[in-house]
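Priority: medium. Attachment 1 of 2:
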């Protein structure tokens, strides 16, 4: 096995699916079985466990595994599968690789095989991609009729079914070739670890020529809301709540409740369906106890052992605090109202952002951002957030070219300033000379004021932001781009305790937050300095 050349024939010369099954139907071929029952029968009657203390025993599916298979392979009146995308999310070490490999075989040579099918397993890197391939090879070696009809190519991580012409291939996100597929079956292992969504998108968009394609994702949760794995889970939850009607999508999520105690064994069970079975309870207990004693381990344990959407690093502004400030209002609601602004300019990699803070409207915050339009796709790949989707929704404005078009930004600033009663706009001096020249050329007069980015000026402004969030004197309209930027902040603290936002240390872009900090900082100090009276409909200075 693995040594025969391309196009080799089955050893025994049998051309029927399953070797001698034409003479003796196999259990999963018997009449009267549903498609889900055929898949279950195939796994339980043909395959054996390949590793661990139960190695060599028949593959016995657990109740929760059968429930997933029955949901995924359920058919309608036309006997076709309803589900096209299925997500099974649970903590690690719950036997996902073995289940994934078994389902791959069902589509390659079993009850779900088709003529010239293309089956793929995908993973974040080569080592991860090898896991399902290695499991597949081990399964095949223990089933003579399957071993007889396939050609395994270890070097390229491919398996060819010499009867139907179907192929299986293990792929990783770092592979150079990601196009030319016509997938009939895809299984993505640990999608949460993928560095970007490129491979997922390439594979899932390659299924158009297939009558009944199927994509299965088996993974823990991702750490942040903007990862493709989080998008899938959020969509699946919306389907479960009947907010979205989509019978082609199925989600099964095993996760501990938010805020669960690390030592709560009921929470462990919620995230680990195999706990106490083939998932070690003792190892789980040890990991949880260590996380209690060593706080730095807690995020990893919550993410990998409790399957919670938890970031590995503590956030500058806790997600719960930021979310508590969310409110529903629109730009129209604040027209003509007094506000303070912050402007943070970008060029190619950074965003250009404007924040307006309305201190006498419940601390409402509005945010606009711009970026070069010609490299939007590249930016999306690099930052792992849906810039194109945000652009379609008007949350970010692409400007012409590969660098931010400052004339475009200048004209938009003039339009925005004409709508609101802008008192001052603080700005970072970096790269401001060009914009000031353009503003002068266009005859645009804005109330601009330099705003230093060091501890002396940013320190009080950051403190004002923190106090506004904690005191709920800040409201935001759940702008996802701004929320993403907030999650990226890694602050710098000097020996006196003053804090500033450091772009060099940030996880990703933080420009909208920097703009908001300048706006809030100006609002915090300007009334004291200039004596503004906000009591009436108009702002009076004295």
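Attachment 2 of 2:
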């Amino acid at each position: 096995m693995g040594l025969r050349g391309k196009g080799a024939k089955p050893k025994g010369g049998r051309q029927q699916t399953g070797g001698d099954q034409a003479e003796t139907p196999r259990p999963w071929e018997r009449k009267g079985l549903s498609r889900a029952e055929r898949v279950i029968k195939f796994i339980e009657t043909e395959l054996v466990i390949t590793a661990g203390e139960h190695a060599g025993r028949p593959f016995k599916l657990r109740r929760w595994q059968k429930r997933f298979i029955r949901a995924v392979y359920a058919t309608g009146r036309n006997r076709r599968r309803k589900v096209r995308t299925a997500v099974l999310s649970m903590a690690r070490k719950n036997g996902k690789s073995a289940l994934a490999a078994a389902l791959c075989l069902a589509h390659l040579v079993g009850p779900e095989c088709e003529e010239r099918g293309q089956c793929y397993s995908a993973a974040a890197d080569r080592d991860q991609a090898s896991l399902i391939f290695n499991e597949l090879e081990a399964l095949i070696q223990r089933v003579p009729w399957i071993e007889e009809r396939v050609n395994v190519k270890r070097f390229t991580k491919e398996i060819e079914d010499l009867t139907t012409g179907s192929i299986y291939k293990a792929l990783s996100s770092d592979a150079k070739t990601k196009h030319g597929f016509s997938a009939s079956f895809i299984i993505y292992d640990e999608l949460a670890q993928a560095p970007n969504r490129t491979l997922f998108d390439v594979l899932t968009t390659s299924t158009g020529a297939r009558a009944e394609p199927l994509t299965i994702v088996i993974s823990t949760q991702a750490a942040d809301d903007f990862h493709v794995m989080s998008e899938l889970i959020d969509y699946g939850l919306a389907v479960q709540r009947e907010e979205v009607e989509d019978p082609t999508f199925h989600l099964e999520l095993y996760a501990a409740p938010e805020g669960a105690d690390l030592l709560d064994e009921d929470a462990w069970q919620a995230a680990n369906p195999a706990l106490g079975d083939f998932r070690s309870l003792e190892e789980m207990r040890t990991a949880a106890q260590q996380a209690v004693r060593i706080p730095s381990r807690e995020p990893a344990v919550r993410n990998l052992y409790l399957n919670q959407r938890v970031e590995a690093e503590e956030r500058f502004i806790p997600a719960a605090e930021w979310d508590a400030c969310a409110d529903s209002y629109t730009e129209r609601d604040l027209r003509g109202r007094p506000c303070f602004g912050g402007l943070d300019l970008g060029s190619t990699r950074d965003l250009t952002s404007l924040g307006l803070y309305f201190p006498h409207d419940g601390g409402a915050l509005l945010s606009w951002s711009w970026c070069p339009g010609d490299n939007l796709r590249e930016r999306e790949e690099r930052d792992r957030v849906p810039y194109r989707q945000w652009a379609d929704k008007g949350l970010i404005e692409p400007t012409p070219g590969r660098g931010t078009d400052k004339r475009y930004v200048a004209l938009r600033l003039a339009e925005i300033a004409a709508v609101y009663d802008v008192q001052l706009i603080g700005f970072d001096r970096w790269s401001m000379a060009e914009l000031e020249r353009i503003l002068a050329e266009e005859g645009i007069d804005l109330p601009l004021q330099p705003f230093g980015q060091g501890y002396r000026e940013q320190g009080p402004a950051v403190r004002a932001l923190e106090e506004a969030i904690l005191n709920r004197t800040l409201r935001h309209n759940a702008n996802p781009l701004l929320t993403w930027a907030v999650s990226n902040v890694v602050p710098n603290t000097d020996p006196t305790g003053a804090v500033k936002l450091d772009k060099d240390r940030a996880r990703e872009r933080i420009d909208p937050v920097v703009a908001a900090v300048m706006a809030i900082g100006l609002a915090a100090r300007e009334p004291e300095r200039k004596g503004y009276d906000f009591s009436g409909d108009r702002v009076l200075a004295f």
